[in-house]
Amino acid sequence: MDLTYREQLRQIGLNINYYRRYRQLTQLQLAERVSISACYVSQIERGLVKKAVSLPVLMAIAKALHIEVSTLFQFKNLEKK
């Protein structure tokens, strides 16, 4: 399964969204814990970041969600069946 860069960013965003909801956090609550804006959390979750999300931000998000950073990179099969 070869994912494009955009698809990878989208999958990371979906993973963040899943775990944020699992932890019953709003985007604003997560943003405050990570010291970023809620707008930026929204962009990350939707895969709409312009270039890339920095590793320190991803590490802070993972910590706030009580997951390993590697969990954010566990991509689901996105191929159409």
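That was protein one. Protein two is written in the same sequence-then-structure order:
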Amino acid sequence: MLIFLFILTFVLISLLFYIVRIIKLTKLIYNTARKDSNVIIWKNSRILYCDKPLMELLKKHGIDVNDFRNFSFEKINFYINKYPFLKEFFEKFRVNFEEKLFEYETTIFLSNEFYKIKFRREKNKTTVYSVLLITNVILNIKEYTDELISSIYKIPEEFFNLTTSDTSTYELVDYFFNFLSSQNIIDSLVVGIRKIDGSINIIYGKIGDKKFKNFTIKDKTLISYISDTGEKLYVNNSEELKLPEEYKLMKVINKPYSIYGIPLRIGENVFGAVLFEKEGNNKFCLKDFHLFEILAFLISISIKLKNEYQILYKSSKENFKKAIIDPLTKAYNRNYLFDALNKNIKFSKEKSKYKIVIFLDLDNFKYLNDKYGHVYGDKVLKNFVKTAKMVLRKDDIIIRYGGDEFLILLYDLNIENAESVIQRIRKMILNSEFKVDFSYGLMYFDHEKSLEENIKIVDKKMYEMKSKKKKLNL
């Protein structure tokens, strides 16, 4: 009786271990497989199971399954030399050979057929299980195409319009988040741009109930890792993610979650990354990945367009400034007078914006130039404009009309106040280091006449003053 109980106990324990093993294998395959995949499973270094269709498939493409019946770290170079189309996989396998969990997914082209390869290797104390699944994409092209196309149809057309509109990138990404979360696809979305100093500027972050905008992270995080490597990364369990020492994962919640990270790039230039996150393990599927790829591309375009716009806007602003500003005195020039300002003056006919026009000419400026040199003459001109600006108000305008001639337009003043302004300028100039007197003409701006006609009249008044001064000096 005791022997029977002992045997029964042994059988039950063996059965229990077998069940646990089956559960582990089932979980491993579930985490890796698709229903239409061919599978091969290793326990430690030996093949535990290989389905017949896969053996036939490998044979068809000249792959000898016997090469893999007892694989080891030392045989990796042999595999690379014999099967060069799998070089990338074996090189990554070598680097991650000692890791507790290693996953790899790619698509290869063999004999006019596309195959999706997915590999998962998981260490369990003293046992290592490896699963390789191969799916013929061509044979299942309809299913794959339907999945990909359905993900495109999910994207509202307005997203494409918003990408190139005046909408800020922050608003655009917020649209994306609201759409994806309403579809129960993601819980969190983070977009980061790498700055010159290596830090990351989070231009958009939606994590739980919190939103972030223009938040700088100096530590190297997952976004930094994806930006630095320029490679996409799928993490089906955040608890199992291992990054190089210099990087760390900023956990958004205290539960495992799935992450899909995509580098933001235009061409070969990687400038940031976007993270799509969902609470729970293995929460994303192929069509989600495709959807994320499209949205990441739209975000990249949006950021690039906004940056290019800023550069062009800044450049055009600087060029416009150069075109309307006198480089020596920093007063406006005649380009500004007869282009932008002329339109403003015509518009102000009803508004009565500029009421006073003054034309000034520096007295004896040629004499100062001849006696003290052109460098001194330049300083006189610069000092005159600098002093005049100290007296003039924000909306008043001073223009270098040519040589030592200046035009001043005064905003909403009468003749008496305008005379007071001119005398204050004269007093400050005559008390400065680069003193010079000037003659001027002053009048109310006649909006019934053109700008040129107004200047001609006030120029004549200036010459009348200059003539009187000459007679007095004589």
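The mean pLDDT is 79. Keep this in mind for the problem set.
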